[in-house]
Amino acid sequence: MKIIVPVKRVVDYNVKIRVKPDGSGVDTINVKMSMNPFDEIAVEEAIRLKEAGHADEVIAVSIGPAKAQETLRTALAMGADRAILYKTDLPIEPLAVAKILKAAVEKEKPGLVILGKQAIDDDSNQTGQMLAALLNRPQATFAFKVSPQGETVEVVREVDGGLQTLALRLPAIVTVDLRINQPRYASLPNIMKAKKKPLEEIDAASLGIDIEPKVKVLKTAEPPTRKAGVKLKTAAELVDKLRTEAGVLQ
């Protein structure tokens, strides 16, 4: 069985985001970029399934500019077998991502597609669900545990009331949550080996898919600065401020 893992290149989660002076978006010039943390978890889960004998090959897929090769090389260094980059310089929205991934799935015919539940740059949490709908395949989101069992895969997923167990017929789509695993660090020997693993580049425009953005960002702004707190000595002072300044008490 093949497993496809989509990975996204995003601003590193340790970086403090800066908005461009003209408000047109987030400044990414000379900013550290890395693999989306949820996608890193998805790569780790796919590799663990392969190590357990449930898969023969793990394929990392990314959509974006040429620099996204760095993200794919990270996935290869972690243990993915090969990678595919659908190259485009356009900003890609979730539906366009799902359509491109659909083409990748039809090309590679994997038994499982494992995605991070969302990307930390837009927090859309839509791609996995859209991909399942486009392919008409069973899906399980927010996975806590993934256990392939012959022609099915058992997925324990996190829900508001606790845990829910689903059995999906393969092929299927699964999105993973934070607590499913702890991603491994790529060792130096594996980083060197990753440079020799196959990385295929495909022009996204050649797929004949409409990937033009449908949403226009009018303005990007930083959240307002919070005012400093005030220490009060008595409960009476607190009640007075809540009444006179905050207006929450009558």
Automatic annotation (TrEMBL):
GO BP field: carboxylic acid catabolic process
Pfam families: ETF
Family annotation (Gene3D superfamilies): HUPs
Cofactor: AMP
Assigned protein family: Belongs to the ETF beta-subunit/FixA family.
GO molecular function, one term: electron transfer activity
Keyword entries, A-Z: Electron transport, Transport
Its job: The electron transfer flavoprotein serves as a specific electron acceptor for other dehydrogenases. It transfers the electrons to the main respiratory chain via ETF-ubiquinone oxidoreductase (ETF dehydrogenase).
Designated name of the protein: Electron transfer flavoprotein subunit beta
Residues annotated as domain Electron transfer flavoprotein alpha/beta-subunit N-terminal: 23-211
SUPFAM superfamilies from the UniProt entry: Adenine nucleotide alpha hydrolases-like (SSF52402)
Subunit-level organization: Heterodimer of an alpha and a beta subunit.
CDD domains xref list: ETF_beta (cd01714)
Organism (species): Rhodomicrobium vannielii (strain ATCC 17100 / DSM 162 / LMG 4299 / NCIMB 10020 / ATH 3.1.1)
